[in-house]
Design goal:
By secondary structure, the chain is an alpha+beta fold. The protein has two domains: about 55 residues, no CATH class; about 160 residues, Gcn5-related N-acetyltransferase (GNAT) (Aminopeptidase), CATH 3.40.630. The chain contains five helices and twelve strands. The strands form two sheets. An eight-stranded mixed beta sheet has the order 6-7-8-9-10-5-11-12, sandwiched between helices. The chain starts with 5 loop residues before the first strand and ends with a strand. The model has no long low-confidence stretch (mean pLDDT about 90).
Length: about 230
């Protein structure tokens, strides 16, 4: 496997008036154990691209994971489970799916005000994977309410992205999806659930630290959030 590492800079997606700098490479295949090691060094993937932050003068982006063995839902999360008890979950491998693509398009247009044109973003991100990956589909009756994508590794699961039907915004499906992935980790005997990055002062990221037993990667060591 030939790796060509390149460096990029762009506007920070999490903090105002900040620059995002990162190193990245592209590959079509990677052993799950190798990716698990890379996550422990601050790497993430988006489609076929693997990247690691290297922002000058800033270290606010911290990889975050949930210690599955120690996790217990709080009252709010327990209510979320009860509120969504009518949802049926289905787990399947990565594959291009028009139902998923339509939901993803609706979600990013409504929630993030993105205009989809040109390249097929869904296919680029979720139709194929260089590692072992799965999708969880959440149904309310025959209707697809949400779909979450995740990578499966020897000792952990890495949550990639969740898209949900904007009509069901009040159900808290983002939280529900994480709770179901924790449940899947336990079923598969995995020790932790990776949630990407946590940024202390970003409203987009604050929900991740509300899960008890969450840990941050600091100086290459996983430590409980203070």
């Amino acid at each position: 496997m030939r790796i060509i590492l390149e460096k990029y800079t762009t506007e920070c997606p999490y903090l105002d008036n900040k620059t995002w700098a990162y190193s990245a490479f592209r590959t079509f295949a990677m052993a799950p154990a190798v990716y698990e090691y890379l996550i422990g060094s601050g790497w993430r993937r988006s489609g076929l691209i693997f990247y690691q932050n290297s922002c000058p003068g800033c270290s606010e982006c911290r990889p975050i994971r949930i210690n599955v063995e120690k996790f217990r839902p709080d009252r709010s999360q327990s209510r979320n489970i009860r509120r969504n008890s009518d949802i049926i979950c289905s787990v399947r491998p990565f594959a291009h799916n028009h139902e998923e693509q339509e939901l993803y398009n609706r979600y990013v247009i409504k929630r993030h005000e993105q205009k989809l044109s040109g390249a097929d973003v869904y296919a680029e991100l979720f139709a194929d994977s260089p590692v072992q990956s799965m999708a969880i589909k959440y149904y309310l009756g025959p209707r697809l309410a949400a779909v979450g994508w995740m990578d499966i590794m020897p000792e952990s699961i890495s949550s990639i992205y969740l898209a949900y039907d904007p009509d069901f915004s009040s159900r808290g499906l983002g939280v529900f999806s994480i709770l179901k992935q924790i449940e899947l980790c336990r079923f598969l005997g995995k020790k932790s659930l990776h949630l990407g990055f946590h940024v202390k002062d970003s409203k987009k990221m604050c929900y991740k630290s509300k899960f008890k037993s969450a840990e941050l990667l600091i100086d290459e060591q996983w430590s409980p959030i203070p």
